[in-house]
């Protein structure tokens, strides 16, 4: 608990300074609302925010799950064949140089305003960290272990299932943690292009209506949502790879 | 009729850019512990890689129980200097690693693995993850895993090389106990002359690269061996002799 006290204290101090500065300098609410006004605005529009929260979570989850499957597929493909690796790898990097905000209206043009273009954007944002981490995990397996299995006469399939896959899980979860945080952000951005529900669209509407306090409230919710999704990944990781987390030593 | 050696290696040679192993011949009798010592980097590990079938020899013959074996993967219990335990598997499952590779029935193998753990005092650690074990314990588990996979002939590649002296000597006694109970045939490499003398029936001395058998010394110390033997005059005499050969 002790290690949490300083960040909490610091955060509190920032909020306090913010609160007092706003009232001290008489800053207009539509330019910068105070923390108390933001909390108040959140409480006022809580049912509205909840109404817009649901589709965002839904899209983010579907997009992330899609990204997981795509990532596993691509990583295994690259692991299995040097040729595939040489073909795919550069395009993986290039895919990350495309500004997704520009891509979003194009996808809307091609796929309409429905769920599909949104999920494609989220998956595009999320798949990269998972793929790269998983692939690095495959590559990072101790060569001595491979030699051991080789001496036992294991085939490639067995080596993959017995060693490469489990050994890469910590790396996979590292990537997934990043992707989980991206997924919420991806969902919000994808909604800017057109949606009737979602935190992204609520954000746009609030900005255009100069409801700056609500903008901040929504930003706060997006932040909390991202943290929660990272925490969920963390919990799943701790449950599925407990060996990675318990490193206490016992002497014989 | 006298039985022939368990393992015969004849004129084994391997070269990559340069010659690494040159016409090595050695044999191991049933129930014998044979060690191979030589200057570091002389090709001991490469020799084991060839024997185990990971590398293919350019020339030479390897016979197990009198029969020539060309596909040798899976025919030895091969253990390395590092324990190479899988951190995601508990001790018991680590020991059972080989079952799937050999295509055996899991439950049967589990009974055998538990039996092995019980017999050699690791039963209480069955459900431990390797990360919770000390270096010496890890190596004990690795040894049992090797035996569980294939106890016909063991290839131990500097198995105690990364352990501290005290742990190492306790592992020596552990290995000898297992060897006696299971009547194993063992070849191991080391660069520690005392270890070689203490454990072996015979010691092969390899020359510098390209590796070749320089000499083979019989160790005439009575068994069972005890820590006290390490300071006996006979032991010291052997040590001097081997030292002069290296």
TrEMBL record, chain A:
Protein name (database record): ABC transporter permease
A single BP term in Gene Ontology: transmembrane transport
Family: Belongs to the binding-protein-dependent transport system permease family.
Intracellular or extracellular location(s): Cell membrane
Cellular component terms (Gene Ontology): plasma membrane
Domain of life: Bacteria
Keywords: Cell membrane, Membrane, Transmembrane, Transmembrane helix, Transport
Family matches, as Gene3D superfamilies: MetI-like
InterPro entries: MetI-like, MetI-like_sf
Transmembrane segments: 49-77, 89-113, 119-141, 162-185, 215-237
Membrane topology listed for this record: Multi-pass membrane protein
Residue ranges constituting the ABC transmembrane type-1 domain according to the UniProt record: 53-237
UniProtKB/TrEMBL annotation, chain B:
SMART domains found in the cross-reference section: AAA
Domain ABC transporter: 2-233
Keywords: ATP-binding, Nucleotide-binding, Transport
GO molecular function: ATP binding; ATP hydrolysis activity
SUPFAM superfamilies found in the cross-reference section: P-loop containing nucleoside triphosphate hydrolases
Protein name: Nitrate ABC transporter ATP-binding protein
Source organism: Candidatus Roizmanbacteria bacterium CG22_combo_CG10-13_8_21_14_all_34_12
């Amino acid at each position: 608990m002790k290690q949490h006290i300083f960040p909490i204290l610091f955060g509190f101090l920032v909020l306090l300074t913010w609160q007092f500065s706003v009232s001290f300098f008489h800053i207009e609410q539509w330019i910068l609302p105070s923390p108390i006004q933001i909390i108040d605005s959140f409480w006022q529009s809580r049912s509205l925010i909840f109404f817009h929260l649901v589709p965002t979570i839904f899209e983010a989850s579907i997009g992330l799950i899609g990204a997981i499957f795509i990532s596993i597929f691509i990583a295994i493909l690259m692991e299995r064949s040097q040729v595939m690796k040489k073909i795919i790898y550069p395009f993986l990097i290039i895919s990350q140089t495309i500004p997704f905000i520009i891509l979003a209206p194009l996808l809307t043009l091609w796929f309409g305003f429905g769920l599909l273009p949104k999920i494609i954007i989220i998956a595009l944002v999320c798949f990269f960290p998972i793929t790269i981490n998983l692939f690095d995990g495959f590559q990072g397996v101790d060569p001595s272990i491979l030699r051991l299995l080789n001496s036992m006469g294991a085939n490639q399939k067995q080596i993959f299932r017995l060693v490469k896959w489990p050994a890469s899980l910590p790396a996979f979860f590292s990537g997934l943690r990043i992707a989980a945080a991206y997924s919420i952000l991806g969902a919000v951005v994808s909604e800017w292009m057109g949606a009737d529900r979602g935190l992204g669209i609520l954000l746009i509407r609030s900005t255009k209506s100069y409801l700056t306090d609500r903008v901040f409230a929504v930003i706060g919710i997006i932040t909390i949502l991202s943290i929660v999704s990272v925490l969920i990944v963390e919990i799943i990781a701790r449950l599925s790879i407990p060996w990675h987390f318990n490193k206490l030593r016992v002497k014989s | 009729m006298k039985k022939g050696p368990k393992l015969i290696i004849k004129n084994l040679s391997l070269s990559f850019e340069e010659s690494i192993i040159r016409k090595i011949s050695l044999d191991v009798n049933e129930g014998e512990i044979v060690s191979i010592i030589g200057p570091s980097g002389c090709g001991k590990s490469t020799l084991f890689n060839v024997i185990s079938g990971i590398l293919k020899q350019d020339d030479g013959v390897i016979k197990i129980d009198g029969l020539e074996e060309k596909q040798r993967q899976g025919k030895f219990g091969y253990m390395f200097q590092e324990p190479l335990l899988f951190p995601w598997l508990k001790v018991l499952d680590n020991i059972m690693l080989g079952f799937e590779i050999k295509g055996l029935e899991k439950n049967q193998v589990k009974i055998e693995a538990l039996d092995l753990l019980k017999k050699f005092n690791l039963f209480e650690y069955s459900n431990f993850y390797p990360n919770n074990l000390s270096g010496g314990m890890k190596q004990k588990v690795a040894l049992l895993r090797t035996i569980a996979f294939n106890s016909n002939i063991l290839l131990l590649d500097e198995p105690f090389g990364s352990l501290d002296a005290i742990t190492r000597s306790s592992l020596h006694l552990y290995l000898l106990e297992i060897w006696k109970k299971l009547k194993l045939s063992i070849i191991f490499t080391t660069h520690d002359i005392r270890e070689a003398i203490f454990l072996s029936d015979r010691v092969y001395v390899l020359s510098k690269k390209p590796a070749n058998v320089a000499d083979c010394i019989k160790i005439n110390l009575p068994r069972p061996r005890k820590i006290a033997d390490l300071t006996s005059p006979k032991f010291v005499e052997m040590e001097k002799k081997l030292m002069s050969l290296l």
